[in-house]
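With this grant's support, the team has encoded backbone shapes as discrete tokens. A representative record is reproduced below.
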Amino acid sequence: MFNPIVWAFRSLASQLAGVGVIDDHRGQRIADLAWPRVLTMVARLSLRVTDIAMVGVAVGSAGLVGISFAVVYWQFAFAFGLGIAGGTIGLVAQRYGTDRPNAAAPVIAHSLLLGLAVTLPFVVTYWAGSGALIRVFSEDAAIVRYGSTYLRVGAFALLFLTCNVVASRALAGADNTRIPMSIRATGAVVNIALNALLIFGLQLGVFGAAVASVIAEGLVSVSFAYGFVRGGLPVIGPFPLAVSVSEPRLHVGLVRQLLRTSLPLIGQRLGNVVVRFPLLVLLAMVGPTVVASWEVARRVRNLLNASGAGFSTSVSSLVGQALGQSDERLAVAFGRDTVVFSAIVYVLSGALVFALAPVVAGLFSRDPETIARMTPFVRVASVSSVGLGLFRTYEGVLKGSGENRWTLYGRLFGLYVLLLPVTYLGATTSLGLRAVFAALVAETWGAALVTGYRVRSGKWTVTSQPHPTAD
């Protein structure tokens, strides 16, 4: 069956190779690993956009604001699972790239257990104290009601989502992004269908949106678990890795290694979330409608960065496997070609959304005044998305070598040295929205400059040392 995304990625790789910009063989490998992840993220991020659009239509702006506040806490907890998953991909790739690929199985088992262990306390906390947590931002009764409902019910999805992201990254480390793409994209489609049924059909509003997420993520987790234990899934096919339900004793050395590679990524994710608490307060000071417009801009930027997730996963796996074979030159070549390949994709997609900004803004509202307010935010998001994409590609290169400190440095620089202070100027001076727009762009481009410097230095190749396998 013809797949336009596969065709687009492979064709672009061939065209770039034809003019000598990248190597054709490496370009095709990059494309083959990137497109499934891109498709997965397009489906999942489209879900997030559809989610708030449906809620906005069903319950109004109070529901959107409530969900925005709930998502901050939700992302804070998920930062731990994402960090552990990010550390997993490099460790799996380095083991899968050796003559003992089965040595990667203990990494998956330990990552899953560690992820669940750190996520469960958040689920309990959010269920018991959701109302108080939302009141940190607002005392408005409607906002608190919607926000606490979404946070309390949606917290259970965190357990499933942590398992899903670890499983996806593990398979990517084993040179397979097609399987997680198939499973998670299907889950996203199911989620959208459930949203429509529960939000509109049964008129459950925000509660329906949260329940839909829990059910969809749970089904995805069951699919991954079956595939890893049974060795594959019907229709989708065999898994490149298998995990035994009777995995042997705890390997303390492996846990330490996983923590060493994951902690910088966890710190980066936490830094990305924590900044949103004061940021939301500052944005509200600029104007009452700015919070909603900023949330729309953030979702649009994330959707544009679906390709960034694909290139990051692709290069992380390819670099990790090359370093696992002690081929530093190949690792550097994959890194260089992926940066060039991805940069062109980011610029093209950003330019398209910039040109269609009024149309994109119209997806979130039918009110002409609201569309007019959101349009410049969408345009700024398209410019910011290029910087975010470059950062994600550089991040993937560094992840593949287990060098994750510089991704932390870059992200924190963009958030705390650029985004927050410049937004503060917008809230406290006459610069207003101009400063807010500048902050959104500076955040991602600043992070890209820091991580790009590290990648270009070439020093990341020497940080990857042979790792003992767990028996």
